[in-house]
Design a protein that fits this description.
Immunoglobulin-like; six-stranded antiparallel sheet; 6 helices; about 10% helix
């Protein structure tokens, strides 16, 4: 572990492992040689350089707190210098080699979030990044009775709701909510443990179903299968090939804000025989809800209508169009207004949260719209409506309940 500071310091390191065990308090200091170089740069050039303090935690100590090959540590660092104190905190995940680590991976499988990426259709899509590197000449292929010279490795992945990775891989349980995938595969030679090895590097972005509700959760699973002859498709490798690895993580998305945009007739001035057609749409996806016709007619009165949608489907804003229709069926356009959509999350303890105003709850806007041909058709000169915007963003706390953020659990191996 390394800590960068801006001047020679003594650092006190404390922390808590994910299993609740406290890390014994440890002192870290910057080296005397680095301190002297820092002082020279400060005295001669007036430059305050960064200086590093390092510490190595014994592998056996880290391994005792690991689950699935990963140990998570919440670390607190207190730096004490000649000019004051600085307190900082952070969280890190340590990859822990185990005695029975399989020789398949040159770089272990990692699964991270890419946040909400803007799709080609203008909708924000939850996206997961997958990375790993395989030893293409691993002895594992021969151990499985495969011909190493002709091995083909197939990958399957899924974001599964309602089942774990074993149920998905063995019995097709759960619902796969992946939508699209873009992968890059490259090959290179590396020196691994003193030997030149052939390595295949895989990087992929997996887009999830954009219609999932706020706070979705499930298991993201990756299965690698090997055969020593090319088959007709990935599906046929499941029963005929050898499973090299079945890994997965628990995955939970943030609580994206939801919008309810309503239009209501204000007062009694709207003629009973007229209608006010209301439409909601997004430039990217088109209609967001079924259009509604408002009327003050006592026999079929509907004075308000509301459209509800996730902020993800209209990040550029929701467009509300109002059109008046007279008794003869002729339409008079009144207004088209773009309601701004805020995709920020509600972080109650984020000191910079006010910049994004992720906890805003919406607004109400009274409007008086001119009805140019109204008087000639027995209608008033204007129409009074109220635009009501309700924004719902469930609050999360940065460390105590990070419901505003992605949550990815430790990598777990599953058995078939």
């Amino acid at each position: 572990m390394a800590v960068l500071v801006n001047q020679p310091s003594t650092l006190a390191l404390t922390g808590t492992w994910a299993d609740g065990t406290a890390l014994p308090k440890t002192t870290m200091v910057t080296s005397s040689a680095h301190d002297a170089e820092w002082q020279r740069a400060w005295d001669q050039d007036g430059v305050q350089r960064n200086i590093i303090a390092c510490i190595t935690l014994p592998l056996d100590d880290v391994r005792a707190h690991a689950a699935g090959g990963v140990a998570e540590l919440r670390a607190d660092v207190l730096a004490i210098s000649a000019t004051g104190r600085a307190d900082t905190t952070g969280q890190l995940a340590l990859d822990v080699p185990t005695d029975d680590d399989d020789p398949l991976f040159a770089e272990r499988l990692t699964i991270n979030d890419r946040g909400d990426q803007l799709g080609v259709d203008g909708v924000l899509v939850p996206t997961v990044h997958v990375h790993y590197a395989l030893l293409a000449d691993t002895a594992l292929f021969a151990d499985l009775g495969l011909d190493p010279a002709g091995v083909h490795v197939y990958e399957q992945h899924a974001f599964v709701e309602g089942a774990d990775c074993s149920g998905w891989a063995a019995n097709q349980q759960g619902r796969d909510r992946t939508a699209a995938t873009r992968y890059t595969v490259t090959s290179e030679q590396r020196t691994v443990a003193g030997r030149v090895r052939n390595v295949t590097i895989v990087d992929g972005d997996v887009s999830l179903d954009r219609t999932m509700p706020s706070g979705w959760q499930g298991q993201f699973c990756v299965r690698l299968t090997a055969v020593d002859a090319p088959l007709g498709g990935v599906a046929s490798t499941v029963g005929d090939g050898a499973t090299l690895a079945l890994r997965g993580v628990s995955l939970r998305g943030p609580r994206t804000a939801d919008y309810a945009v309503g239009v209501a007739l204000d007062g009694t001035g709207f003629p009973a025989e007229w209608q006010l057609r209301t439409e909601w749409r997004s430039e990217a996806t088109g209609a967001l809800c079924v259009s509604a016709s408002l009327s003050s007619d006592g026999s079929a009165e509907q004075r308000d209508a509301t459209c509800a949608a996730s902020a993800r489907v209209a990040p550029e804003g929701m467009i509300v169009t109002l059109t008046a229709r007279d008794p003869a069926g002729e339409e008079l356009p009144l207004m088209a207004i773009r309601v701004p959509v805020n995709t920020a999350y509600c972080n109650l303890d984020d000191p910079y949260g006010y910049l994004a105003d992720g906890c805003s709850t919406g607004f109400s806007l009274p409007l008086e719209l001119p009805l140019a041909a109204g008087p000639a058709r027995g209608a008033p000169e204007s129409v009074r409506v109220v635009l009501q915007v309700s924004r719902t963003a469930v609050a999360g706390a940065l460390w105590r309940d990070p419901s505003h953020a992605w949550a990815i659990g430790p990598l777990t191996s599953f058995a078939l």
